[in-house]
Structure prediction request, 302 residues.
Amino acid sequence: MKPKLIVHGGAWNIPDEQVAAHLNGIEHSITKTFEALEKGLSALDAVELAINHLELDPTYDAGKGAFLNKAGEIELDAIIMDGLSLNFGAVACVQNIFHPVSLARQVMDNTEHAFLAGKGAQQFAIDQGFEILDPKQLLTERELVFFDKIKEDPEFMTHHPFRDSPSDTVGAVAMDINGNLAVATSTGGTPRKLPGRVGDSPIIGAGAYADNSIGAASTTGWGESIMKVLLAKTVCDLFEHNSAGDAARIGIAKLQQKVGGLGGVIGINSNGEYAYAHNTPRMAFAYVTSSGQVISKIKITP
Ligand code: ASP
Prediction:
């Protein structure tokens, strides 16, 4: 069957001068990954590959280009999930690696656990032979300037919907030629977060969920609100009795109505239909149509 692929490059209020870079990055990632999916790459390998491209792209708040926390350090979170087995792997608060999503994959494949955080996750990266970087290798001038600007700003609020977000979380959902689904999400979290803070992204059901029998979804936005409604799992459950588009929209409406949340979601239901919705001013996302055309967007009317 025809594979399916949708990726996002985050929500919030992506500034005008960052729009082209956000679109270019997701288009590059989706084009490269879709070629491989068409040749038979599994959904699980595809979401890892799509995210790896985005983690190396300094445009996004994932891998290189991530936000700095309050201590001026980068702490990364990621998750990957297989819709066939419901196996998942996740990591939180890891530092100095380019590809936290691949570390999450190693947790899933090579341990009897599902989620490693902090010191243990860091040691696991070393044990698995990940390249341990100098912190400067993940840092961009843009984030340094942003950090200096908000460091002491009493007005800065993480969840202000119109705050400019120079970079953002990434996610990918794929259905392969065998009809299997997978999802992955990777992030540097939120700007000026407290060290040790973990958001929705690596939390199963919040930042990502995949189950072949219903669908798969990846989220982005204000993590503290997304966790409360387990947005990714909520949207997957909604796939059962709604069109894909409605499921995404109802999920975002629940986020907004129940907890005053802010965010975006992308997904694919078990019939291979795409879903996307957000209540932030903008969300960057791209998908491949059944005729093989890449459609990328940065703004839809919520
Ligand atoms: N959801 C992420 C977090 O709260 C941030 C984002 O998606 O922009 O860590």
User: Anything to note?
Assistant: The chain has one domain: 4-300. The chain has eight helices and twelve strands. The pocket of aspartic acid is lined by residues 10, 168-169, 187, 189-190, 199-201, 220-221, 223 (CB under 6 Å). Residues 4-300 form a domain with the Glutamine Phosphoribosylpyrophosphate, subunit 1, domain 1 fold (CATH 3.60.20.30).
